[in-house]
Amino acid sequence: MRDLGRSEIKELTDSSLGHIASIEAGSAPGSDLTGSVAALMFFEPSTRTQLSFDLAAQRLGAQVISFNEATSSTAKGETLRDTVLTVAAMADVLVIRHSEEYLPHRVLEWTGRPVINAGDGTNEHPTQALADLVTLTRHFDRLDGLKAAIVGDIRHSRVAGSLVQCLPKVGMSVTLVGPAEMLPGEAAPGVALSSDLDSLLEETDVVYLLRVQAERGARAGDDYVERFQLSDRRAQVMKPGAVVMHPGPMNRGVEIDDDVADGPRSLALKQVANGVPARMAVLEAIAGTSG
Ligand code: NCD
Question: Which residue owns the Cα nearest ligand 1 atom 7?
Fold first, then answer.
């Protein structure tokens, strides 16, 4: 998302919306990765992202091969580069998730194949951000001028890493909210930092919640729930029409209350559904003939 301009983001959003229209009309997917092979290489756990890339590639006519680290030869001492070159020898486009930041760039250098970033460490998760933009575009008449608060473990969140890049490019303002130790030292230009969720709720259009990433060493302090959970009481303070978003997986009872997770403001399952057309748009743009 850092590398994309406003018009490129709009093209990808429009292309995703086109795929939604054809999915809803029940028409056969228009385009065309027919005859090509998409390799999904997930070195970190995934539910939504992997399934939606798999489905997106299939809807475009590609054959999909999936690499699973737990059962692969990396356990036999093969280097990461050799594993990647091996899979790339059978594939036309690579989708990769890994704990190392900027690995997709190295994979591109190693293989010369089109590479899609499905999450690189704590850096970016661009297709999640695109699915979110599609979700917002479908929900609001216009994005320009909307206020977003992204709440939680910002420092470890690649989702936040992509959202802070793209939301300002579509005219939205962003405040990153969390305890000081979960906030970046400094924010990108135009992005605000806060540790006071309550002071923002009444004026925010989008409250975007994030999980505390224990696997990357984060820990919610004893007062985390009290200060940062989007509870039912807090959700009632939000303005009419304001929405709640979450990329999943949710830790219910920590960053979000059950009633809010399943409540009328939540767009979480729409974000999941829109992940498929968003990833179709990206696959087409990167690997397709008609993108
Ligand atoms: C996120 C991820 O893996 O970055 N999940 C996702 O892809 N929807 C967020 C997370 O793990 O908390």
Answer: 49
